[in-house]
Amino acid sequence: MRKKLNDKTTISNRRVNTARFVLTVLLSSTAFKMNSIDSLANTNDTVISLEKETIYISENTYNAQFVDDVEVMTLAQNDEALVNKWQFLYEYGYDAATDTKINTDFNITTNNKTYETLSADDFKLFQAVVAAESSKDHHDALAVASSILNRCDDEKWINYLDNKGYDGRNPIQQITLPGQYSVYFEGNYEVYLDDKNVPQEVKDACRLAWYQGIRSHKYVSFRGRSDTEYSDNQVVENGNRFNDVLIKPQQDKTIVDMVMEPLDRVNNDVKQKIKVVE
Q1: In a domain? residue 114
Q2: Which of 68, 97, 168, 184 has its CA 20 to 30 A from that of 136?
């Protein structure tokens, strides 16, 4: 069972040893050297921190490179390490690097739909909207990105857009649908069309969600953190509030979807009823 002490998620010595093993496998299976990795463990229970410095060569570099005889991490290797780190942090519910609690009802999933066939301008718009809607950290940015992309898999939202003459499976058309994402229609996203204004945390989250199919939940809607009546589903305390569980069209469902979707929906409904009672 997960062990929590002193208001922060900590890890027992046994799990620290597991963490060491995971890190050893990760480091030995990829051709890079991290410039720095914070201490993983002391002799007693300790909080895990996997922060590292990263040297980017270019977004199109996917082979090992050397700069001044120092082997540096390519973007693909960085992304692999980042996904492994997030999966680890979400399991234990705490990000030591930012002293942030993570809601363990959220979890990192892979192999979701990707959108590399859409244009670079489409991605730029998506990233700008996520930057404007999120609290600018990795976790809330990925949650906002996941919510937008989940709509492209959701039966209700696909049909709703299709009936209005839009393509419900296209994330850009989900974003530009009138009445949905206020930052788009109010123009608040425009400052983030300049890549220099987008925090690296948001860039990481959007790149992994769009190009590699990484998501952190199954919700299709969200509102700002101040709307406390809407939902308690926040990945981090200062983040957006998420609601409405993804339901795939019948023709897209796998056996796993058929089993899990009703359970996810019931679980969310129960949480909302408990909230009302409280």
Answers
A1: no
A2: 168
